[in-house]
Design a protein that fits this description.
The chain is α+β, with helices and mostly antiparallel strands and about 210 residues long. Helix content is about 35%, strand content about 25%.
């Protein structure tokens, strides 16, 4: 799964001279929290809703509402945008994009080719990708197994699944410790009883079926 498969290919953008109030209105109208800043298609920065709200004067200020609005109307994106933007390319994997967002605590990544903006991927897009990878919107059975952490364990489990002529819609593994591993299977069946029986006979402990 790659970023190009889930990114927005026509993200809403603004320029560096856009007034802050206008940018906030664009975000609220379109229900978005991130706006790439471009100049003739070239990415030069990014701004978030939090950035804009942070620079807004505090409610405790002694300025009047008219004075506040006047000050905000004079401020433009150039004054608050982030210029050192973390970006990805369309061929970046979903896992790498998710890791970048987590490590840098950001909610989106502009997607570029050279210095030109070609898309935007957000946390919501990442979640949509995971939902699709795990087959969560498809009818079937979710099964969690615990097994010995050894070479060939997954192959042996999938061999039994194949024997029962069941398709695997999604799969994930998590090391429980150095000796055991948990495996989640999303299967295209609503009658997994015979498979569960076979798995248990072969020493694969079925922890849950739903």
């Amino acid at each position: 799964m790659f970023v190009r498969d889930y990114m927005s290919t026509s993200p809403i953008t603004i320029n560096q001279e856009t007034p802050i109030l206008e940018a906030l209105n664009i975000m609220r109208k379109n229900r978005i929290r991130h706006l790439p800043v471009t100049e003739r298609g070239r990415l030069i920065g990014v701004v978030t809703e939090r950035d804009l709200l942070t620079v807004s004067p505090s409610p405790a200020t002694t300025l009047s509402v008219f004075e506040l609005n006047y000050l905000l109307s004079k401020m433009v994106i150039r004054e608050v945008m982030k210029k050192n933007v973390i970006t990805v390319v369309p061929d970046c994997t979903i896992e790498e994009a998710a890791l970048l967002m987590r490590e840098h605590r950001i909610g989106s990544l502009p997607v570029v080719e050279g210095d030109r903006l070609v898309g935007l991927i957000t946390q919501t897009d990442i979640l949509d990708a995971l939902i699709r990878i795990f087959g969560l919107r498809k009818a079937g059975t979710r099964m969690v197994l615990e097994a010995e952490n050894r070479v060939g364990t997954l192959a042996d489990i999938l061999s039994l699944v194949r024997k029962h002529e069941i398709n695997v819609l999604g799969l994930a593994c998590r090391d429980k410790d150095n000796e055991r591993v948990q495996i989640m299977l999303r299967l295209s069946t609503v009658e997994p009883d015979s498979l569960v029986e076979d798995l248990n006979k072969q020493g694969f402990e079925v922890k849950s079926v739903s």
